[in-house]
Amino acid sequence: MATILAADIGGTSSRFGLFTIESGGTLSLERTDIFETADAESFSDLVSRVSELDIDIDNVDTAVFAVPGAVNRGVFVSMPNVTWNIDLEKSSNKFYQDKLTLINDFKAQAYATRTEAIRDAKEIKTGQAVEDATVAVVGAGTGLGHAAVTMGAPGRITAVASEMGHIAFSFIGEEEEAFHAFLRKKLSIPYGYGDLVVTGPGLSHIHEFLIGERLEPREVSERAEPRVMEWFSRFYGRAARHYALAVVAQGGVYIAGGVAAKNPSFVDCDAFRNEFVLSPTYGYLLEKIPVWLNRNEKSGLWGAGYLGAQKLDLVS
């Protein structure tokens, strides 16, 4: 039996999990622990808090930590909304050098689609998934995450990270273009992009534009102005459509992230579904792609654990 230390590090909290896996490839989550990320003065300080538990990190077989942001060579990341970076090459710690790998947090979400983390995912748009086809994951939180999982080498699962949330978002019609102009002026930016539209902050921007008052995302959700909800759902469906077409996700699309987890009605609605299939050229393809909502808060851990099992050659 092998042991894997996994983590899902976020700007607010960091979740750690200890997995075991048998030679037959059955991954089991034995325990989880959560720490406030801001309470740690550095990455080493955060990891030391795990060491203070009854977890001997030096004796795990491998470790994979999921982190927000673009990961460089599995060893460096500069994380948004966190005051410190992670650079494994600058440490002489044998755990960092020999056992630990960093991956993008949505890459972990993609790997999670191959685990029991999606067991309770709800189908919000019907379709027929094609076996062994690419699966996409899109999720709104503080940012807009994207990743895909596909077959790489024969029989080997490969997840591909994306920073599509920073690509120019498409706005359609005069009203939406007026909102785009509002964003550019308010934020002094050359163009609007997904991280500013299909996210918690994006929800606040939409409310301010349509209603004329500035509220926090939680307050906007509680207020639930119908027009604001419809706009946000429509934009969410568009973001999911963009990425589904970008990777030809005939294996299906999973919606992850905190926004939909807390407010399922943002995606489980006609505004989302109608926008998802809106394509003059590939509407027929999008009609066939199923979409699921995954609200499992431990999905990032499961995905990191799966990659750890891959590193040990215990899963495909």
TrEMBL record:
Record has Ligase as a keyword: no
Pfam families xref list: Glucokinase (PF02685)
The entry's keywords: Kinase, Transferase
Cleaved signal peptide residues: none
Keyword match Transferase: yes
SUPFAM superfamilies xrefs: Actin-like ATPase domain
Name of the molecule in the record: Glucokinase
Top-level taxonomy: Bacteria, Pseudomonadati, Thermodesulfobacteriota, Desulfovibrionia, Desulfovibrionales
